[in-house]
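Let us practice reading a record.
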Amino acid sequence: MILCGGRVASDTPVSADPMPRRPAAKKFTRPSVPAAPLSPAICMLASGSKGNAIYLSDGQTGLLIDAGLSGVQIERRLLRRGLSPSNLDAILVSHEHSDHIRGVGVLARRYHLPVYITSKTAQASARQLGNIDKIINFTCGKPFKVNTLNIHPFSISHDAVDPSGFIFQVNGKKVGLATDLGIVTHLVRKHLSGCAVLILEANHDPEMLINGPYPWPLKQRVQGRAGHLSNMDTGHLLAEVAHDCLQHIVLAHLSETNNTPEKVLDAILPVVTDRKIALSVASQSRCGQLIDI
């Protein structure tokens, strides 16, 4: 969902067998797709509690940020956008929860990709990641590069051992990513200021959460300081960091139980309605469009 400007059956042969055979299950055949020419772009491959993955490129380096779906699903979603795993140079991990790392190990081994991850997150996810040939540790607060792509990781508040948000420098523009955070700290505001593209969590509607089916301890976790941002929280953050050069906002990690795209837009549109900003709501079930940067 994107808004802009805040805006015949065929004949079937009869089997000769006395008992018809059950059709074999369709298998995913991994096509041999050459790397496509890269352009500065970002694509939300999946976003939500069932799996998260984001593709980002500065035109020369291709990066997969988190891989919370199976390797096959991520391959399929890349292909739907004319991309190939051959476009990837590395995988970047934000934290160790399974909806962010489920496919990291298999993709890293299959395509010989280095994995960039903090040392604490690597230790916490070692069993799920399995053996990976090349792990490169980064530290929140210290910028680093993946080939030509400049990355500045920063700490966020979430119930993980060392969760990270990220700033990327793409095509001379600043791209900010902050999902899975319970509160907006001064550090978060500082890093997300001045971005041309923002990918922000808008996880839940507070009333839907309180009145919904989650057990009380889980409700407390979600709305706690190490949980997830509500639509209202995200609206307040955007009111502080929105500026005239902000081009695109992607609202991410929506709860399928405690939120709806309509609820999100009701909360966010008043903040951006007077600005020429493209507004997208990321989906769990389908990959988004390529967003040019």
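A brief commentary: Residues 37-292 form a domain with the Metallo-beta-lactamase; Chain A fold (CATH 3.60.15.10).
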